[in-house]
Amino acid sequence: MGGGGSTRRVTFEADENENITVVKGVRLSDSVIDRMKEPSSPGRQHRGSGAVNDEELKKRIAEELALERARRDSEAQKRRLKQEQMYVRDEFGKLLERERISSNEHLTRAILRERAATEEERQKAQRFARQLEEKDRELKKHDAYYKEQLARLEERVKPFF
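Structure tokens predicted for MIC19 protein:
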């Protein structure tokens, strides 16, 4: 509010009653707007008539509004992009989870198949071991029988030799 010029930029827009308001939330009264439209104080020079200032002011306001709308649109697009990224991340996470579950299921099935095959091989080995033991007993039985027969034959042949 001193003699130096302000470097702060203020954006204006028109409200529903065609009254000018400051976007940052500060409302300007009609008297302040009228004073802004009036020629500057005697110490300052005024550029042209009030009609030119009105047109220039309207043009600047329209430009500022367009810039503000563009900024809002850009922010809205950024928000949409972030939402879409989050959606894609969520979907990708769900897909990875489904793949992990599917992989675990395949692995579990493969393990079960291997366990079943191992059990089947163990049972087959036990069956072959029993069969081998049975054949071994049978051979021992035959061996004992033939030894007995041989001993009898030797007893019968002893008188001749």
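Residues 42-50 have pLDDT under 50 and may be disordered.
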